[in-house]
Fold each of these.
Amino acid sequence: MTTATTVTSTPTTGAPKPTTMAAALNRALRDALTEDPAVHVLGEDVGTLGGVFRITDGLAAEFGDQRCLDTPLAEAGILGAAVGMAMYGLRPVVEMQFDAFAYPAFEQVVSHVAKMRNRTGGRLPLPLTIRIPYGGGIGGVEHHSDSSEIYYMATPGLHVVTPATVADAYGLLRAAIASDDPVVLMEPKRLYWSKADWSPENPEPVEPLGRAVVRRPGRSATLLTYGPSLPVCLEAAEAAVAEGWDLEVVDLRSLVPFDDETVAASVRRTGRAVVVHEAQGFAGPGGEIAARVTERCFHHLEAPVLRVTGFDIPFPPPMLERHHLPGVDRILDAVARLQWEAER
Amino acid sequence: MTVVEHQGQTDAPRPAPPPHWRPRTDPVPLLPDAEPYRLLGVAAAPAKPGARRTKASAKKSPAAAADPALLRRLYAELVRGRRYNAQATALTRQGRLAVYPSTTGQEAAEIAAALVLQDQDWLFPSYRDTLAVVARGVDPLETLTLLRGDKHTGYDPHATRVAPLSTPLATHLPHAVGLAHAARLRGDDVVALAMCGDGGTSEGDFHEALNFAAVWQAPVVFLVQNNGYAISVPLDKQTAAPSLAHKAVGYGMPGRLVDGNDVLALHEVLGEAVLRARTGGGPTLVEAVTYRLDAHTNADDATRYREAEEVEVWRAHDPVRLLERELLALGILDEDAIDAERERAEEFAAGLRARLNADADPHPEELFAHVYATPTPHLAEQAEQLRAEREAEAEGAAHDDAATHDDERESGR
């Protein structure tokens, strides 16, 4: 019933133009709705309002209020209903309004979304996409800035991906919707309005989920990062040039599946690695990533794999968030601790 | 600060309420009956031993107006269901099932739920509802794989239109709503019937499912089997509502209160609810007031939380005996027919027993086969690790066997 669909884009003459990540996500939803009548978007305020971040802007007007459906305000109900819709052959795309508002649906995610294929011996796959705007940096009040990716990463049966660029926002969302498995798409909300030159009429081919990409080649050390921390790492890498460090920056893009090959190849080249993310450090994603890197690259490492993360605190009030979020200086301080003396 | 004087019962004009603050639905038609709806009466046995109801009094019974073929079918399913419960419980004692949550005493609700559905409809059972799944026609061996421990869900949900038995409480109810909604979007004539217990009505997913179903007017029937206890906690510690059926009103759907041991009343009420859903009338909440004669599962000691006298009162209102008594009085059944039905149930149980006594052999490769459509590289590595472990284990066992043979030779045996 649910076969893998190949995502294709129709090349037209569209020239690259400055486009926001929000617009690329909107375009991805529009293209998916156009190409496959099984795709349905549902969530709180996604219809008339177009979503609080306007990611679903105009979809209800274009595709009707059933293809882009305003639901009652109840996250478990939304996701639970999406499970039933997927059981009947639809491809629901659920918007969870904010990271911390998705928690009421967590039981549905863990007990049903992630397990339905497994529980039924492969007979009931759930091709559904859960979009979660996540992370801080937009001055949100509490419960609006959580980095909750580790909860989903810790749940077998889910794919967890997070774009950091405009092109990836389009590509990963299209790939998520096309996937026959549930995908949690963590959308870095502080990058929603970041712009890049992009051809909405001629989007790049969509890669399969599970591939990391080297955003900046370098020789001295590897910064392993994703989502909202990618631009920070790229900035840090530029700043590091003045210190004589040539940093490689790897954008993980997909946390599950994890691209061990790309990551290990990079760290073996550079011999040093720092994992950078907004989520807490203790029991955070970086712990798992550092362990995997160490297991694969131990004999190539010149220093322990370090982590630069948010503090182990509940997300702070907006006036303090700049102290919490990993910035360029904290990344450079970590790079400085990578036992350079061994080489000098 | 101004002081507002209370006007009391004066004719002083009141401000008109804002236009949206009117109730949109008259709640009265949504309210359940004060007493559970029943057709078969309350006494499962005649007042005096050996006494029969007269045919004259039986003819006045609503059962007299029912289709005799349906009555015989219901009776056969009840007898088979009672035997199935006993057999499954016995199999837990033999270690063939890890656990079995019995529906002895609740067979009527299980059977009626399955029989009111058409082929294309979907059933969403909870972990206690294996009997409804069997009555729907699913291979009983496949319905028991979860409880036996060899597979989570043995049957094919698409082929049977039965969702997996849900162990978390009430979380499958929103699935029923979503599926029914999707079917209607596709223009398909599909009703979803979702089952939960009295304890499940306290869960958030229960409320969200009912609300979604009512707002979407989804073709769903919610059946709550109120068997008096959520494991050990009695209903009055579970809810302060007048009845569980009353909860429907708050969502804007009809609530029906029905005798859960009266299979004929259940068949009628659930049948009406399914028809309402099928014809665009939206969802219904049905509360079946029943009783679990056995413990919560074989692992539970029911004597810790309820008196034997209470169980006896409900035993006198036994769903199988209730219908049997009626059908005997109507002449639809006689003692021979009853014996024949029990014999058929016995054969059914023997067949099930034989099949469950055969050793299940789940394959370890299944561990990785159905986590994702394609195993992640990480899982592929782990599958390879397990394969190597098993190979080494098999080689070790072969080596041990050979060593044993050598020992035997050396010792001259």
Amino acid sequence: MNDPRDFVAHEAALLDERRFDDWLALFAEDGHYWVPLRGAAQADPFSHNSLAYEDRLLLQLRVDRLKSPRAHSQHPASHSQHVLQPSRIEEESDGEVRVRTPFLYVEARGESQILLSGTARHHLVRTASGWAIRQKRIDLLNAARALPAIQLFI
Amino acid sequence: MTSYRHHPDRIAALVQDDRVHRDLYLSEEIFALEQERLFANTWVFLGHASQVPEAGDFVTQEVAGRPLLMVRQPDGAVHVMYNRCAHKGTQLVTDESGNTGRFFRCPYHAWTYKLDGAPLGLPLKNGYEGTRLKACESGQGLSVVKHVKVYRDFVFVRLADTGPSFEDYFGEVLGAIDNMVDRSPEGKLTVGGGVLRNIVHCNWKMYLENINDTVHPMSTHESATKAAEALWEGHAPSDPKPMAMEQILPFGSGYEFFDRMGGRVFANGHSVLGVNFSIHSNYAQLPEYKAAMQAAHGAERAADILQRSPQNSVFYPSLSVKGSPQAIRVIRPLAADRTLIEAWSFRAAGAPALLFERAMSYNRLVFSPMSVVAHDDVHLFESIQQGLRAGGNEWVSLHRNFDAAELAQSTITTNGTNELLMRNQFRAWAKAMAAEAAA
Ligand code: FES
Ligand SMILES: [Fe+2]
């Protein structure tokens, strides 16, 4: 999977198949998953809060929690569907690439379904075994507006 | 269908000494009456003065279903007006916040108002000569909220003309705001990092009860705490913890911990949970911060301020304060089965940046729509909202540690798992709801 655009599609597919361990393995050791509260307008995760800003330790915690039969909110379980627009390469340099992918995200659980939209921005680094995620940033439309619980990974 | 509006006795009957009726959570009529009576007659948190630093700065916010406008005046005061043009009712501003300059101009027919709401001008003035406009409400400018209290920059409103004074209403629980502000060596907080906003499909009272519920973390949060414990296993207790671990692991404390932390109730529904210690007590100490606090307050007072870290202090009916980490939750009811929960973080002037990081991190992990901890809470609140529709048992139990003597006292200090903290909320609810009906 040399083309980073294929990597992005694969990454979303793993989430939609609930293969969370495989998904987490795509992150670099220093990888982060970031959903800024100001969406595309936000410069950094420190001066303003985020809906999520997580390193591998926290992502691991989330993935492990989802496996627990005592994750009450997962009865019934949530399922996601990423509807991706074609990815575009924003920047490419020695062993690094930045890709942007506008998307619709549907998360369904029981009778309810939520719809989110925005742009995913992947910062990927080349490793011996292929691309790895240094940062996956999700710029949501209306990130700072009131939202219902988002339980899986956008 | 029970009708409550004209039957104060029926409303009173919903709250018994040790249990409450499900209609409190389900009835849209009760919800409408709460907006009119409880939320209009008590002191409700509106916003923070640091949101409007400059003259002309405004913030829009609904309270009890009424659109309001908080505005910084040229003389530095903070005023609150109804966001309703005196002409036909257009909202003067529809942005969440901004700066209006030196006056408000209605976008519909261009009537203008001073920053304090006084009428300034209107087009085609001649047409009003000889009419009654000047004498009518519409000629007086914007309606002003008369009862506004800015307490250490926390802005509260009481919409009703009559009712308790701010100090009488909150009394001793104001110490929780004092403690939070005093944690700034300069005595100043500013809102920072934005507000996390959640829509939860449950009644607002359920959320507020849970703020005082220490029996649930063990069972409710097991999925998150067990995962955190497993990840942290093998580390010595003295190992420096990543902030997220420092904040999540204490949720897994046992019943005994929560029981010993202690709670206190006050008149009018307010309470403090964690009067002895809390899940926030063991955050790493910061020597340079401690030194700044001692320089500002003296050693004894600084120690006193810093060792106080209750889990939650409830300013009934709409605000919950955490002095450490510096965060508040604001409960804004939208319907009987829909509540907006906001989580705000504060920067403390003169304190290290790490404190602000703690506030943001805590809110993100625990109160974000993408929280690691709250999904299980939210699921259960929404589950209760559905479960209460079941017939058979129409009552919600609040029996734990009930003692008839509590009915005669207003301030009581008790064990941390006592459901008294919730019973106290409902007694205040019944009082506020019946008071208006009797008038
Ligand atoms: S409604 Fe505001 S000027 Fe007419
Ligand atoms: Fe909880």
